[in-house]
Design a protein that fits this description.
The chain has 16 helices and 18 strands. By secondary structure, it is α+β, with helices and mostly antiparallel strands. A hairpin with a 5-residue loop joins strand 8 and strand 9.
Length: 468
């Protein structure tokens, strides 16, 4: 950055301890949970909308790229400073977490950890349903930027369904408010929904008003064991067309089952090709009836066995198995390519079959788990990025996974976002007209392309490269 710009920045951020420029700080801000490393020129830990506005006005004046960042749990490269410039760290800005039990809303600062919102709401008998896998560490503004999902989204919907108001700083440094505190609001364009899921390219979220709902009075968890992987996909479809809507249906294939058992033995059936973990919630009488229906569906779907958790502790043990998949599967090789291609629910069995074919064709270490109830599976390829030849094969396998999802009427991403990792494949899903409309929106909001550049939109000739 220029010396003059440096002096102006110090006038915006009066606490010099929140301006980071040491080499070790810059390096640590060059990573997220995906591939790639891009070192910023400067890191600023913002603590007010006015500071963010000042920084963005300064950035526009000097054409300095600005990349918003939370805890960087992103799997798509969203918070990577591809063009250098300033990383705007919002993770320390967590001073506001207000639960209004009468309006049934939460008002939160951008750096509040997502799981803390649900924990605070529970004291009032309320719930904030979105529960991404990173919810214990990820910040709410990052979840909003990516429109994150999670297991409970099957029944309750994704993040955007709970955002009713935002305070946002536009790329040119204007502070605006979208939406409000009412559940119904059709006044003008829905700028709130435009910002949610825009991956930090259209504005910096500095406050959010979130809708809360009553917490269900009871829940039960069960595990369904299968000898054939595709049968588990078939059962998902049958459950969802039976009139039952579980709060969660999570799938684990044999590779993930075996990895978890080797990592931390929990008594999972390592000889099974797949298991489904299902959670029912609601009134206890309704749960009991639904439980019997699911037993019947399982028997007619080729399931080997149904095990029902008899206590909350037993249920926690089962869900612990699902949460351990990610750390467990990287014990043999250090690199994990985590995808989240998503298909229509009716195509889940066929998608499972296509994934099995891809695993066989490319002879890769493919582990499949995820949110089977909404078609949002997570095919994870375990590999070693130091092995260039292996990574070339992995690239082809990833492309095959994308193509399979799109062939089945699906999408490139269900919850991780596009970022840098999938931008090359946007033309596979969208035509020139759709991409042009998105680019026109970006240009209207951010004419100088200051905010989070090089995300979402493909560069001509760009492709996924994991082997460099």
């Amino acid at each position: 950055m220029q010396t003059e710009a440096d002096q102006q920045l110090k006038q915006i951020i009066h606490d010099p301890g929140r301006i980071l420029f040491r080499e070790e700080d810059l390096v640590s801000y060059g990573y997220d949970a995906s591939f790639g490393f891009y070192k910023p020129d400067l890191v600023v830990q913002a603590a007010s909308a006015e500071e963010v506005a000042g920084i963005l006005k300064l950035a526009n004046r000097y054409k300095i790229p600005v990349t918003p960042r939370g805890q960087a749990s992103s799997l798509s490269g969203g918070p990577l400073p591809v063009k250098g410039g300033i990383v705007l760290d919002l993770s320390q800005w967590n001073d506001k977490l207000i639960i209004d039990s009468e309006d049934m809303v939460a008002v939160v600062s951008p750096g509040v950890v997502t799981a803390q919102i649900d924990k605070a709401a529970s004291k009032y008998g309320l719930m904030y349903p979105p529960d991404p896998g990173s919810s214990q560490v990820s910040t709410i503004a990052g979840n909003l930027a990516e429109n994150s999902g999670g297991p409970r989204c099957l029944k309750y919907g994704v993040t955007k369904d709970y955002v009713i108001g935002l305070k946002v700083v536009t790329p040119q440094g204007e502070i605006i408010h979208t939406g409000g505190r009412t559940v119904k609001n059709v006044t003008g364009y829905d700028l709130t929904k435009l910002i949610v899921g825009s991956e930090g390219t259209l504005g910096v979220i500095t406050e959010a008003t979130l809708r809360l709902i009553p917490r269900p009075p009871a829940s039960r968890t069960l595990m369904v064991i299968f000898d054939h992987f595709v049968d588990s996909g078939t059962m998902v479809t049958r459950v969802l067309t039976s009139g039952i809507l579980p709060s969660k249906i999570e799938m684990m294939d044999q590779a993930s089952i075996q990895a978890v058992e080797a990592y931390q033995p929990l008594g999972l059936p390592t000889d099974a090709e797949a298991i489904l973990l299902i959670e029912l919630d609601g009134h206890p009488a309704a749960i009991a009836d639904e439980l019997e229906k699911i037993r019947e569906i399982a028997a007619n779907s080729g399931a080997r066995k149904v095990t029902v958790a008899e206590s909350d502790d037993d249920a926690r043990e089962l869900w612990k198995a699902r949460k351990l998949v990610s750390p467990a599967i990287v014990r043999n090789k250090p690199t994990k390519i985590s995808e989240d291609a998503t298909v229509p629910r009716s195509k889940i069995p066929e998608f499972c079959s296509r994934l099995a074919q891809i695993k066989k064709k490319y002879q890769i270490d493919l582990v499949v788990f995820g949110h089977a109830g909404d078609g949002n599976l997570h095919p994870n390829i375990i590999c070693d990025k130091r092995n260039k030849e292996e990574m070339k094969v992995v690239e082809k396998a990833v492309e095959a996974i994308f193509q399979a999802a799109l062939d089945l009427g699906g999408t490139l991403s269900g919850e991780h976002g596009i970022g840098t990792m999938k931008s090359a494949y946007m033309p596979w899903e969208f035509g020139p007209q759709e991409l042009d409309m998105m680019k026109r929106i970006k240009t209207a909001w951010d004419p100088n392309n200051i905010l989070n550049p090089s995300k979402i939109f493909p560069v001509p000739g760009q492709k996924l490269v994991l082997s460099e």
